[in-house]
């Protein structure tokens, strides 16, 4: 089976793990009691995480699509393809940096923009990062071992792809953890 396909399967499983870990962490959050039929308004943190995910996800999917379409070896050999993919991933990191700076500013100011619930969700959001990254790594290792078992030589391009996939899964898991944290019923 194609190694890139294994990586895509790993990403799907990783987001399933993020969802389960975030739901588990949700149960430890303080309960919010509202009258029937009334919903909580979206908080600034929830809006920021949603917008950040909305910007990052297409960038990451486009980068994965380019690598999948061209193949790992073309990605490695063709500077144009590699620089395009790297640019997309760096753009996703820039969105995450903006998110992190904004949340850091809100936390440092303590101006009431983040309440106790926001802080609890922010603290529990990374619960799915490590499991998601471990699932991603496990899928890469299974795919690479199965593909290159006969030669015992794994091309170095996969080291770059493993690094980028783990990094992107980590930051997407952060956004997903925050958004799932607000979905507590």
Question: What's the helix count?
Answer: 7
* Uncertain spans: none
Instruction: State the separation between the terminal residues, measured CA to CA.
Output: 41 Å
The gyration radius over C-alpha positions equals 19 Å
- The assigned structural class equals mainly alpha
Rounded mean pLDDT is 84
Number of spatially distinct domains: 1
Helix percent band: over 70%
Biggest sheet architecture: none
N to C succession of SSEs: HHHHHHH
Q: Give the CA-based shape.
A: elongated
Query: How many extended strands?
Result: 0
**What share of residues are in beta strands?**
under 5%
Helices and strands in order:
Blueprint: H1 3-26, H2 44-70, H3 72-77, H4 79-109, H5 116-124, H6 129-148, H7 157-181
Notes on the structure:
The chain has 185 residues and is an all-alpha fold. It has one domain. The protein is 77% helix and 0% strand. The chain is elongated, with a radius of gyration of 19 Å. The model has no long low-confidence stretch (mean pLDDT 84).
């Amino acid at each position: 089976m194609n190694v890139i396909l294994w990586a895509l399967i790993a990403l799907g499983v990783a987001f399933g793990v993020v969802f389960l870990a975030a739901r588990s962490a949700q149960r430890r959050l303080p309960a919010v009691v509202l009258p029937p039929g009334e919903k909580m308004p979206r908080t600034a943190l929830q809006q920021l995480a949603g917008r950040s995910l909305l910007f990052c996800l297409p960038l990451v999917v486009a980068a994965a699509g380019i690598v999948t379409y061209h193949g790992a070896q073309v990605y490695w050999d063709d500077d144009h393809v590699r620089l395009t993919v790297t640019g997309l991933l760096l753009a996703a990191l820039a969105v995450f940096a903006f998110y992190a700076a904004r949340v850091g500013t809100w936390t440092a100011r303590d101006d009431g923009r983040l309440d106790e619930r926001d802080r609890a969700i922010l603290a529990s959001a990374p619960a799915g990062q490590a499991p998601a990254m471990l699932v991603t790594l496990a899928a890469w290792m299974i795919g690479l071992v199965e593909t290159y078992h006969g030669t015992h030589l794994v091309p170095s391009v996969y080291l770059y792809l493993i690094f980028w996939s783990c990094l992107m899964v980590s930051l997407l898991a952060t956004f997903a953890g925050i958004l799932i944290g607000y979905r507590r019923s």
